[in-house]
Structures are given as structure tokens and as C-alpha cells.
């Protein structure tokens, strides 16, 4: 009996804890587990506004519950006619002035944070210290992301790599339809517009929180952009500055090194058709209009196939065989003829060999 | 000038009617059907999202369903149902015999109806629109097929109907009030109708213009939104939201009006702070135009614009708060009867407060970068639209059902509907706040497992089925009531305060045998308190002038429908242009006929009125 | 006063457009309608201003616009507004024939304006500015074209009224109709003043 009670207690304790933890979501994607300066700022605004709003709700609820219980019509009161009250200036002034005060308390930090988050002066300085202020050009495309590091002449796709504990600045644009760039755990989103004028903003990635999240943050497209909008994910590897510098160096010099004979076969197939759109070196000097498909320079290091599937050969084969079944409406479908299983195997070997790490 | 009672078939009667009470029923039926369609679409959405990686519907179809759900619910369900309430009640509330423009009233309905029909035709003709109800320009230009064209032309036609309806109510309320019905004696539902109509007048033209641009770009080679030729898609976003934000108030202000009537009636008290309620309504309407860009905080307008729109948006919370407290204090000291309409009103207060406070949270621009386009926003606007507007429409339908149809809906079933709907509503949407904060973007057709969103989505789906069950009970209630409902008296709830409860249920076609003299706020209550049975007449009994029914509104709307179909296909088929022109000729021809044929209406003679009033009193 | 009553110059009221409830409703409703139209044109103007320099390599406004034609067109339309005022003056004095005469002149002036506008569009197309040339072109043709469509509709409307009532003369049933038609005509005129300033003058200054 007692044991049963204890179990039950433990169980309820655990379920409450699970609920609280689940209430905050996963550390790699939840805005409720902020992992950087921007997200922190937004989180504290959330807490402030929530506190004020809960106060409002409490006041309303207390009056509400009292009124609904106290003033319900009771038996025998059917013909009672209550006093017809016109209003009360005193009360009306109270519930006009108090909300105004509450809103001012909220408005001041809001305005302050809005300007703070829009401060992109360092990235636009004429003689910016390129070692200290990293700029990334983000280009959103129908269901894939391109990340260009203009200071280093390096391009990668799908996996954004950034240094931790410093402000990283972004230029945002879209090449086809409007998308929106969002890394929930690290900070709020900004749209990638199709117009010439680029959007700019900054984010900061905390080293500690990045480790808690497993080194990888999830990124999302937040603006409806077509059938596979839900699948337009990207990943963010946040690493210490040294590690980042090393990575950039490797990227600068990366070239496909193919030794395996099957992979060589794959390279031949790739160079016959795929190369028209996909580059295989992170250094790609073509203008962006010509870069119509993800850069595959470090494909072997990627976190996911097509942004969503686990990174393994099997999934890559699935993708190559029928991309439409994985990302409906993607722009790769029907750009190449039917591949035999051997050809797919060869391509897979080749693509997986494209690594810098 | 004939007064012979014309025997007509029921269908022809409704096709040609210009009587506001019958048009109200048309709006109710059509809006109700579209509400059910939108609801089924909502269920499909929730089924698809119940579990991760679901394949109940495909990605492309999902986008069509989500687009049609939003578009249908706003334009084809909420708007016409609000118009149903306005038509059924406002003219009687101000002591008028009809609206200012009965012919245009009918035209407004048929335009809405054919617009809605056209939009839904897309399901059978190659696929529905799939760029969201906001139809942002870059995606809507990219979208293949004719789905977006159905959206553009369908909304253009139905929007025209709404605009006409808005002007009609403005003039009706200014010009047609009974003697003594001063502005500050108007019932609050009339006031909110008045302000909402003004909003319609100024908010719909920008939508019209936006839709024209989109139509030009998609069908006639325009370049408004093509950046390659100098176009700019942000223009669409501005135009859409200059319309879109006031649209929220167009829907929710009449909802406030409905609740003001219900709360006052069933608390047996006059509305607390009537004049500040009127003031708050007008202020909300005014501020509603100053805040559209809070839908665009992440577009990149810069911190100055974002900060201004953030603060302006917060300001709206003040008049809204005034309203909430006035309702609470109307109930304070009252003698509250928990009828079905009152249950909705009582359930509305906490629900809407939730939607209101998350609105303020969204207004904090810097934090909104996190909320925007996430499920947090989905939760927020459903709390406003369902917790505010849909609750009000359900409440209003139960409240005025006896006035519209002469029979009382079953209270028992009504309460079952309320509880199912209320519980389902909170179950569905409360958890979505957290889904959004946990990183779930809106408008996703599926999601991968392992992101912490499974439980929340499943709960949300279960909630949706509660709401569906509530709706089914309501339909059963309607059928049972129609077959064997209790006949309603003039003052159906026994506590009526405003003029509509002074005329028989349903109201005679001329509304008032004698135009009443209004002697105070809550005109009927004033008379009751002086121990009088009826209203004080302002004129002697005499012949009543009535407008003639007309088939032309139907034809005018049909012409536009045909024309839209033709122009949509003019790039694919050679007959398209021809059909488009023929449709326009039908429309303009019917308008020409309306212009040249005199329509002086007819009279109902005094004797017939006396006869009808006797019958009405007996029944 | 009853709508169909036959009236004389003595019994005709001072404001015939507002003498009946129907007339009052029409009068007020039309003013509201013009309020909506104002917002419609404001949206078109705003878009035009945003896109006026987006010529995408096509002809720009200062290359295309010719003052002479636009100036004549403006004068024609301004004058037609004046003539419609005369028509309303005679309506209030119950002088049906003179009203018809001045309305006829209004229609002629309006038609001449419309003709010039069509000629102007025709010229621009020949000089390489089609509807699809650039965002500027689309915005220009849509703004000015919407105004042109309003003029065309106004002409048809006034003509229909003139012909329909030619034999019947003036009464309280049709007086409000004439009145709101002339109101509409003034509105079109005001919009044109803005088009002349914003599109043409500002376009030619650069």
C-alpha cells in the first residue's frame, strides 16, 4: 500500500518535471532555452511581458470569478430588477491609467531592444577588421540555403559554421521567393527578401549553450515558400573561434581528392551533368545567378541529407533516385535522366568523399 | 403599385428578395456552409499534424488546404456571418423599416456569394490557391496553375460585395434612425456595426488595389511585383496589411457589440459605462489603421518604423481593456441568467483576454522576431478570432435565432455545444503558444520527430475534434428546432432591452407597424419600466412603402462570375477573352436596366397591417 | 414630398437632391463611396510614387511626357467640371433644358479628354513603353488608366441619365441621380489634378 503510494508520488513528480522540461522544448531549437545574446534579450522581454500580462489576467480572473459566482440569479429572484448603474468615472479612470502605466513599463525596454538588435554598424564600417567581425551572406533558395563568407571567398550550403561568443553579422536575401532565416534557440528571425536591398542583422552564439545543445543548432525557414517549406531546414555548427579559423583555412584550399575507383566513376558521372549547377569546391567564383544549386565542397561533412534525413549513404541514394519523394517541388527533380543503381552507388561514393575535415 | 400578395416559390422569393431579414438568412446559410467547409479544412490540417512525418495529405495539397482554410474562414465565413447578424438586427434596433439601399443590400450578398463560389470552384478546376491567405507576392507569382487567380478574382468580387454592404450600413445608421434614437442612445451592436462599416469603407480599397496589381502581374503582363523589372513585393505586404489589420477589427468590433447586448440583457442591467464603451469602439477603429506594419516586423523596415508601430500597437490594449472591465462591471450587481448566449459571453471574457495579452506580447517588436510566423502567432490570432469572433457569432446566433426564425433553439443542446466548443478551443490553441516558442514555424505541412513538438501537436488535434463535435450538436439543434421548436414570443428571452424585442418573432416584413418614438437608451426597457406593453408610436398607422424585389443583383453578380472565369483563362484558351467580355456585358447590361427602369416600390395598406398585427399578437 | 409628383418651378425644392429620403440616402451614400474611392486612388498613387523610377532600362517619364497634350487634356477636364456646375445650377432652378445642354457640353469635353488620353497612351506604346516594359510602366498605366476608366464610366452614366429622362423632365426621383453623377464627375476632376501634379509635373521635373 505504502509502496504504491510512494510510486504514485514519484510518478506524479516525474510527470510534472517532464511537463516543465517539455514546456521549454529542446535546447537546440527552443526559443525558451536561449543560447545567445539576441535570444537572451528576447527571452527577458518575453518574461517581462508575460509577467505583466499574467498580472492583468489575474486581476480580470479574480473579478470575473467573483462576479460570476456572486451575482448569478438565484431561485426566487426571477423578477428582481437590479439597480441600473450608468458607470463610474473613478473606476473608468483607474482602468485606463493603470494599463497605460503597464504599457509604458513594457514599451521602454521594447524600443531599446529593437534598436539594439538592429545595430549593424560594425559590419558596414569601411575598414572593418575582418578577423574580428565575421560577415556571412545568406541566400535562401527553394528549399536550400547558401552561406557565403565574402571575406574568405568561401561558400558552403545547408550547414552554417560560425564562431562562438562573438557577434556574427548576416546579409540576407532570397533568390526566388521570399523566405525567412530563423535559428530559434539563438535569436529571432529576419526575412530574406527578393528585392535588391539586403536585410542585415546580427546573432551571437554562446559556447556553453552550444555544447549543451550538442554543438548543433537547428535553423528553419519561417516564411511559407512552397510545398517543401516545412522541410527547408539548415543546421548551425557553433565552434570556438580557433576551430572556426582552422575550418575556414581548410575550406579555402579544399579540392576533391578521389582515390577510390568507384568514386572516380562517380566523379565522371558528376562532371557530365551535375557540375552544371553544383560546385565541388568551396571556392566558387561564379556570380550568384549561376550558382543555382547547393555547393557540395564539404558535402561529406554535412549533418543531414537534403537538410532533413540522417547523413548516410542509404539516404543519399534515396535522394538521388527520387528527390521529389523527399522534398516535393524541389528544383533538382527532372534535371537529370534516370540513373542506374550502379551510377547512384558511384555518385554516392564520390559525394561522400567530398570532405574538408 | 400592386398590393396583391404575390404567390411566389420560396426559391424565387429568396433569389429576388431585398428584405434585410431574408438577406440576413441568406448570409447565415451561405456563411454557415462556408464555415463548415473551413472547419473540415481545419480538421484535415490537424489530422495531418497529429503525428510527425504524417502523410495524410501531400505537401502541395496541404498548402492548398491551409490557404483555403484561412481565406474561407475570414472572407467567406466570419464576414458574411457578421453581416447576417447586422442585417437581422441593426435596422430593427434603430427602429427602421429596412436598410437605406435594399437593392444594394441584395447585390452585396450575391457578390459575396458568387465570389465565394468562384474561389471554391478552384478545388475542381486544377487546384486551390496555395500561397496562404496573405498570398505574399513572390510566392503567389511563382505558384503554378490557376489557384492564385481564383483567389485574386474571387476575393475581388466578394470584396466588392462587402464594400457595398459597409456603405449601406453607414447610410442606414446615419439616416434611418427612428425619432428620438440619437447617436448616444444607439445600442452598442449598432454602434460597433457603424464603426466596423466605416473600417470596411477605408480598408477594402487597398485590398482591391493589391488584388488588381496581382491580377495584372499574373494575367496581363504587369510588373508590380517582379524585382527583375523594377517591381517590389513589399508593396503587396503593405497593401495587404493596411487592409488586413483593420479587417480584424471589422470582425471583432461587431463581436464586442453582440456581447455587449447579451451581457446587458442577461445581467438585467444597462451597460456599465456606455459612453466610454462607445468612445473605446471609435478609438479602436481609429487606431486599427495605424498599426498594420506590426505584421511586418521581420521584413526589414528598420528599427524606427518597428518601434513606432510597436508602441502604437500597444496603445490599442487600453481601449480594449476599458471594454473588458466595463463588461465585468455590467455583470457586477446584476442578476445573471446563464442562458446559452450568456455562457458564450462569459466564456469569451477570459478567452479574449488571453488573445489580447498575447497581442501585446506580439507588439514588443524585438521579441516578436521570435514569435513571428511561428505557432505562437497561430495561437494568438485564433484566440482573438475564435475566442472573440466565433464565440460572438455562436452567441449571436443563439440569441437572435428566435428573432430570425420565430423558434427557440434548444437550450440543453445549446449548452452542450458551448462546452464542447469551449473545451475544444482551449485544448487546440493553448498548447500552440508553446509549440511556437519551442521553435515550430507556422504553415508547415509536417515536422520531423525529435524536436519536442509531438505531445503538443497531438493535444491540439484532439481539441479540434471537440470543436467539430460541438458544431455537429449545433446542426442537430438547428434541425430539431426547425422541425418541432417552441414558438418564440416577441420578447423571446423575457429580458429584452432593445427595439428588436418589441416586434413579433420573426419580425413582420415592414418591421414596425408604426415607427416608434425612442425615449432613452434601451428603448424597450424604458417602456417596460413604465409598465407599458408596447412602444410609443411616433406616427399614426398608415400605408407602408416597401421596395420591390429584384432579380438584377443576382444577374449583376453572375455576370462578374462569368467574366472572371473568362479572363482567368484568356492566356490558355481563345474563348477566354470572349467569355470575359460577355460576362462584363451581362453585368453592365443589368446595371443599365436598373438605371433606366423606374422602381418606385409598392405600398402595404393600412388594413393589411392591422390584420397582420392581430395575427402576430395572437401567435 | 412624394417622389413622382409633377412639379413646377414654384414647388420645386431648393435642394431637390435631398428632398426625399431616397435622395438623402443616395446623397450620403455617394459621399461615402467617394471616400472609399479616395483611398483606392491613394493606394494607386502611393504605389506609383514607389515605382516611378523603376524603369528597368525602358523609357522614363521625363523622356516620354509631353506638356502640350497633357495640358490641353487638363484644361478640357477642368472646364467640364465647371460646365457640370452650370448644369446643377439649372437643375436647382428647375430648368431642365438648360441642364441637359450643359450636361451635353460636359460629356463632349469629357469625351475629348478621353480621346486625348487614348492618343497619348498610343504614342507611349509606340515609343516603347508598353504595360509590360517595367514596373514604372505598369504603375503608370494602371493609375492613369483607372482614372480613364472612371471617366469612361462617368460619360456613359451621364449619357444614360440624359437620354432616359429626356422626355420625362426633372422630378424628385431623378434629381438625386443627376446630382450624384455630377458629384462623381467633380471627383474624377480632382483626381486628375493630383495625377497632373504627381505623375506629369513631378515626372517632367525629374
UniProtKB/TrEMBL annotation, chain A:
GO cellular component: plasma membrane
Domain of life from the UniProt record: Bacteria
Cofactor note: Binds a copper A center.
Cytochrome oxidase subunit II transmembrane region profile domain sequence ranges: 23-121
GO MF term list: copper ion binding; cytochrome-c oxidase activity; heme binding; oxidoreductase activity
Subcellular location: Cell membrane
Named cofactor requirement(s): Cu cation; heme c
SUPFAM superfamilies xref list: Cupredoxins, Cytochrome c, Cytochrome c oxidase subunit II-like, transmembrane region
Domain Cytochrome oxidase subunit II copper A binding: 131-250
Main location: membrane
Membrane topology note: Multi-pass membrane protein
Alphabetic keyword roster: Cell membrane, Copper, Electron transport, Heme, Iron, Membrane, Metal-binding, Respiratory chain, Signal, Translocase, Transmembrane, Transmembrane helix, Transport
Membrane spanning residue stretches: 41-69, 90-111
Ranges for domain Cytochrome c: 261-355
One Gene Ontology term from the biological process aspect of the record: ATP synthesis coupled electron transport
Catalytic activity: 4 Fe(II)-[cytochrome c] + O2 + 8 H(+)(in) = 4 Fe(III)-[cytochrome c] + 2 H2O + 4 H(+)(out)
The protein's Enzyme Commission number: 7.1.1.9
Function: Subunits I and II form the functional core of the enzyme complex. Electrons originating in cytochrome c are transferred via heme a and Cu(A) to the binuclear center formed by heme a3 and Cu(B).
Similarity annotation: Belongs to the cytochrome c oxidase subunit 2 family.
Protein name (Swiss-Prot/TrEMBL): Cytochrome c oxidase subunit 2
Species whose genome carries this gene: Paranoxybacillus vitaminiphilus
TrEMBL record, chain B:
GO biological process terms held by the UniProt record: electron transport coupled proton transport; oxidative phosphorylation; respiratory electron transport chain
GO CC terms: plasma membrane
SUPFAM superfamilies hit by this protein: Cytochrome c oxidase subunit I-like
EC number: 7.1.1.9
Cytochrome oxidase subunit I profile domain mapped to chain residues: 6-519
Pfam families named in the record: COX1
UniProt GO MF annotations: cytochrome-c oxidase activity; heme binding; metal ion binding
Cofactor: heme; Cu(2+)
EC class (word): translocase
Pathway assigned to this chain's UniProt record: Energy metabolism; oxidative phosphorylation
Transmembrane segments: 24-45, 65-90, 102-125, 150-176, 188-215, 235-259, 271-292, 304-329, 341-361, 381-401, 413-438, 458-480, 551-569, 575-597
Places the protein is found: Cell membrane
Annotated membrane topology: Multi-pass membrane protein
Catalytic activity: 4 Fe(II)-[cytochrome c] + O2 + 8 H(+)(in) = 4 Fe(III)-[cytochrome c] + 2 H2O + 4 H(+)(out)
Keywords: Cell membrane, Copper, Electron transport, Heme, Iron, Membrane, Metal-binding, Respiratory chain, Translocase, Transmembrane, Transmembrane helix, Transport
Superkingdom of origin organism: Bacteria
Predominant location: membrane
Family: Belongs to the heme-copper respiratory oxidase family.
PANTHER family: CYTOCHROME C OXIDASE SUBUNIT 1
Protein's job: Cytochrome c oxidase is the component of the respiratory chain that catalyzes the reduction of oxygen to water. Subunits 1-3 form the functional core of the enzyme complex. Co I is the catalytic subunit of the enzyme. Electrons originating in cytochrome c are transferred via the copper A center of subunit 2 and heme a of subunit 1 to the bimetallic center formed by heme a3 and copper B. This cytochrome c oxidase shows proton pump activity across the membrane in addition to the electron transfer.
Protein name listed in UniProt: Cytochrome c oxidase subunit 1
Lineage of the species this protein comes from: Bacteria, Bacillati, Bacillota, Bacilli, Bacillales
TrEMBL record, chain C:
Keywords: Cell membrane, Membrane, Transmembrane, Transmembrane helix
Broad class of where this protein is predominantly found: membrane
Origin superkingdom: Bacteria
PROSITE patterns listed in its UniProt record: COX3 (PS50253)
Annotated compartments: Cell membrane
Transmembrane stretches, start-end: 28-49, 69-89, 101-119, 139-163, 183-203
Domain named Heme-copper oxidase subunit III family profile: residues: 28-204
Biological-process GO terms, alphabetical: aerobic electron transport chain
GO CC annotations, alphabetized: plasma membrane
Topology class, membrane: Multi-pass membrane protein
A GO term for molecular function: cytochrome-c oxidase activity
Family in the record: Belongs to the cytochrome c oxidase subunit 3 family.
Protein's recorded name: Cytochrome c oxidase subunit 3
